Amino acid sequence: MREVAAGLPGDPGPDPAAIARVVAAALDEDLGPEPGRDVTSQSTIPADEQGSADLVARADGVVAGLVVVPVVLDAVADRLGLGRASVEVVVPDGTRVARGDVLARLVGPVQVLLVAERTLLNLASRASGVATHTRRWADALAGTGALVLDTRKTTPGLRALEKYAVRCGGGTNKRMGLYDVAMVKDNHVAAAGSVTAAVEAVRARFPDVAIQVEADTADQALEAIAAGATFLLLDNMPTPLLAEVVAAVRAGEATGGRIELEATGNLTLDRAREVATTGVDYLSVGGLTHSSPILDLALDLTA
């Protein structure tokens, strides 16, 4: 069997520091204060016993999060003062898998494998669930020219992993946080007094960041463009109104330049292509990260 890299090909992967923090917190929960203990495994399995295990898909889906497996294994080994386990990845993140497929093979101290089991399964199952859900949206939009975006509606502490999982499923990341892109929404407009005032305030304070503006009406969209916005979130618009606003914005691009348009709010898979045909560039779907069920994975000892 050929050995392959765990990560999504061509992707830098999730931030290693963020993954290390998540793994440390998860092990603290499971093992108690450092170095921690597994009272069952440490009682029944000799510390020097070696073995192997397969990471297996228990359902069809898209795999993601295999990049965390060696991180978890190494962290457990270091905490317990045991030898490190090795990981042979069978399929990389982003691969469609079927029930029964072996995703990776693990070899090393059996205590390490079993202590790490739940943490690595929790993280990889969560990531794979996000990737599987995202793939449904990406497939629904195939050929339309529109892309599915994620949002900041992520599980606290898991943003780097969940946004990576979105990429594994064929989706696109929007902003990573409040720091990298300004997003002017209705509450900001209310506080500033108008769309124009809000855009100008952001530009004055943080001239280096891109500005996106949420618009509920055609008038708001056109005001945002006049203020200099080049990315609009068209929020909760029925398809006919969305089409009208897109047409109005596109009509002005010949003189004003390209505007990126995102449909957001109340989007469902069954109307994804309908929304895409209005000419938007993106559909943002908070449910990719806040409502994806896990993909069932298991770790089975083989020797």
Automatic annotation (TrEMBL):
Gene3D superfamilies: Aldolase class I, Quinolinate phosphoribosyl transferase, N-terminal domain. The gene is nadC. Pathway: Cofactor biosynthesis; NAD(+) biosynthesis; nicotinate D-ribonucleotide from quinolinate: step 1/1. It catalyses: nicotinate beta-D-ribonucleotide + CO2 + diphosphate = quinolinate + 5-phospho-alpha-D-ribose 1-diphosphate + 2 H(+). GO terms for cellular component: cytoplasm. Its EC number is 2.4.2.19. Residues 38-128 form the Quinolinate phosphoribosyl transferase N-terminal domain. InterPro entries: Aldolase_TIM, NadC, NadC/ModD, Nicotinate_pribotase-like_C, Quinolinate_PRibosylTase_N_sf, Quinolinate_PRibosylTrfase_C, Quinolinate_PRibosylTrfase_N. Belongs to the NadC/ModD family. It holds the Pfam family QRPTase_N. It comes from Cellulomonas rhizosphaerae. Residues 130-300 form the Quinolinate phosphoribosyl transferase C-terminal domain. This is Nicotinate-nucleotide pyrophosphorylase [carboxylating].
